[in-house]
Design brief:
The structure is a homodimer. In chain A, about 35% of the residues lie in helices and about 20% in strands. Chain A is an alpha+beta fold. At the A-B interface, helix 8, strand 11, helix 9, helix 11 and helix 16 of A face helix 8, strand 11, helix 9, helix 11 and helix 16 of B.
């Protein structure tokens, strides 16, 4: 079948031919071949990257389609790349220097806000911050809140989540339309930018291209739903006895604060200490609590309406202080509180050698699950310092920890396997709650995904990328 | 390939054998063969149904899997069916009496609310009302608002929308997990009920089984996200000059009322008149306006919080009365207002021979599009009375109209084609915004869907239903 499809290109082009053709058609900005210039396209945001044979950067969907045809005709392997902010090495080439990087960086031909439709159509190369700057001019926002500033194409491919998923969902729940190019010999362009809020006519390319990490095609454009920009927020940092109490508190506060709850983040005492000891770190509590919670409530309705979120939050908190669910509370310092939240990852990394996890379980399993994780770590690597934090409101936890520099790799591997087994096999949880799947965690994908799902992925790979040239992982 | 797969069952069983085996294994409640008893499974909610060879009703996912294996072994064709409330004939057998109905009615083995996870796991045979009754006991709700009371399995398969999609999304945006059975010779059970809010690990059976109308498998169980139950609502019926003004009003009110807007429904003057003349119908305005809007705002926060939605709504309305966007307003009669909305379909049908459409365009195209539709109708069928209404907040419109009883079928066909062409080809809209695709509208699916999407559907049909025995449509 593969050979049959390759017959579209009976004569395979040499790499030199390919480069000449790309340069002639796409211009000099499109091609990067010098080692120094390639570096930015080779490094992953967290895990080490690889070596790119070359980087090609088409500037429109048409150029993307043509480029993919050329790459396939030359029988080269290529990896789609956005802003390289992902954490699973999904957008970087392998070490052997054989793969090309197909960058969406120059896909910036449209960024249009449709105010009446409350949507934006945006080319894959724009950043989240570009989109939100344009949306804010119309009192609107794309409410995916992340620590990094990814490209729109990368966000769609990765189906990013973030701190406000609890209220708004992830990318998939806010994606009205998507356009992409498949790795078929024809470089088939698929999808649209119709911007319909409703279109219930069966299969949609959103289902193929969003949350599949570029495995089946390259995202070139997205139409996303925008939300009214928040006009007031209230934020608090709450000390609680345990993560179990934090979950009880979540339910109690959701009952009192309803649709306003836009973030509910858990932070362990050790993670708070890491931030306190970090350069420029804040200490807000007189004594580090065992566990803390950041709650944010927000509304697109301003104070002039009579709605006062800060007093609403304080009232709800007082009730739970009286109920004993809250031990101590800090309010009125939103910037300091969010700075703590956003420094966590770096502060923990600053303590030494970090081992990171991106897990999720049901909210109702969270507290027990976390306790079990701590037991596993204490047994396997007693010297590890667990500094976990995460999106409690959606059951997510970054079970990050610091381990001695000289610990054997085998011990870490065992620990990882045991934590993932606990998560997936015992707690029916996710080994990749929001970061997606890439070479970094493909091993666990292969371990935990069922055969029927892999068969289906195999079918799609075979259909949409018949020569197996796209991407640095296969989901089958 | 099909023949190859059928080799799993080298000996085809006779219909009599099949019935005996089903009866012996599933018990007498599972099998319906008498003409009188079959009737309820043969009639569509709007369009005429067909004739079932027999009806089989397994009572668990395991029984469903076994039943599908048996049906395939006997080489019979079967259509999955929930509560038969759909409007595109998607769940009824053909006229020739050859197809079986595979009912999910007795799949009622689980309805569990997980309060801390804010989710419910529910077997396909329960109704929306069953789920919401169970959820309400915990102050929670599944916020899909429909005129009918469908089964959960049907809702998932059809990806139902409804009047509150504007705020909450449809089924897909609220579906945490799904279980189903494929029409493979093995009756493969797929999916899960893990209830994770986040699990970003690639393909999910939600993407295959939700919004594909049972074409690729039968939904047996769903885990859905629940929302805090509303504690206050405010509703108004507003007279406006035109649908263009209604859209301007939508933007103005969304800017002032933010996340509270839970419904924004448009109603034409002719549709209001139809309700007024309907038995028990209400007249709320002294003179019928050219166009009207129902707005509902709601919150899970009660009045004790200081938030008063009714005064908020009145304040926002007064502003737009002064701006001239609102001509007249009725507030404080939520039940009467919603009764008008819910009587629309029946009232219009009561006027005579109804021709119905389920269209959507971008909100920003809506007003122009509606004007163009009215022009097409006036030209093609001058005697038609257009009584349109719809979900303006998401660009949806039920362009329903009453035509003379004796009008030629060819004229109606031409009208339909012209309206659909206008919707899809000129306005990039949807020919089935929320009702899905079934035999009733398959013709337009075939006309408007692109080849790449149909190829993909073909691939999936071939893989998940290799003997082509499931369903009354093919999406390829």
């Amino acid at each position: 079948m593969s050979a049959h499809k390759e017959s579209h290109h009976p004569i395979s082009r040499s790499p030199e031919d390919l480069m000449k053709r790309l340069l002639a058609s796409l211009g000099p900005l499109a091609l990067i071949t010098q080692p120094f210039d390639k570096q930015a396209y080779e490094m992953g945001a967290r895990h080490a990257g690889g070596v790119a044979r070359a980087v090609v950067r088409p500037a429109s969907a048409e150029e993307m389609s043509w480029t993919i045809k050329e790459l396939l005709a030359a029988r080269v392997h290529f990896v789609a790349q956005g802003a390289v902010t992902g954490l699973v090495s999904g957008a970087t080439p392998t070490q052997d220097g054989s793969q090309w990087v197909l960058s969406t960086q120059r896909l910036r031909d449209v960024l249009e806000v449709d105010v009446i439709n409350r949507s934006a159509t945006v080319a894959a190369g724009f950043r989240l911050s570009d989109l939100n700057k344009a949306a804010a001019e119309h009192g609107l926002t794309f409410p995916i809140d992340l620590g990094s500033d990814p490209s729109i194409g990368g966000m769609v491919a990765t189906n990013t989540g973030g701190a406000r998923l609890l209220r708004y969902g992830g990318v998939r729940e806010n994606l009205l339309d998507v356009q992409g190019v498949l790795a078929t010999p024809e470089g088939t362009q698929v999808g649209g930018a119709r911007g319909l809020w409703k279109n219930n006519t069966g299969l949609s390319w959103k289902q193929l291209l969003c949350g599949t990490f570029g495995a089946f095609g390259v995202v070139t454009r997205a139409t996303v739903k925008l939300h009214p920009l928040q006009k007031q927020t209230a934020t608090a940092l709450l000390a609680v006895e345990s993560s179990a109490m934090a979950m009880q508190l979540l339910c109690a506060l959701e009952a009192d604060l309803g649709e306003f709850v836009s973030a509910f983040e858990g932070i362990s005492g050790a993670a708070l200490d890491a931030v306190a000891n970090h350069p420029g770190g804040s200490v807000l509590f007189p004594h580090t609590p065992r566990y803390a919670v950041l709650i944010e409530i927000s509304s697109a309705i301003g104070l002039e309406s009579g709605l006062n979120l800060e007093s609403l939050l304080i009232h709800a908190m007082e009730k739970q202080l009286n109920n004993g669910l809250i031990l101590d509370a800090i309010v009125g310092k939103p910037e300091q509180i969010w700075r703590i939240r956003h420094s966590l990852s770096e502060a923990v990394q600053g303590l030494g050698r970090m081992i990171a996890f991106d897990l999720a379980v049901k909210r109702s399993s969270f507290a027990l699950f976390r306790d079990r994780c701590l037991e596993v770590v204490a047994k396997q690597v007693p010297s590890a310092l667990v500094c976990d934090f995460g999106h409690l409101g959606d059951g997510g936890v970054h079970l990050n920890m610091v381990v001695p520099q000289d610990i054997e790799a085998a011990r870490i591997d065992e620990l990882r396997d045991e934590i993932y087994d606990l998560t997936v096999l015992e707690y029916d949880g996710s080994f990749s709650a929001e970061h997606g799947v890439g070479p970094y965690n493909l091993k666990w994908y292969q371990r935990y995904l069922d055969d029927a799902t892999k068969d289906w992925a195999h079918l799609l790979h075979f259909h949409f990328d018949p020569n197996a040239k796209l991407g640095n992982i296969r989901l089958d």
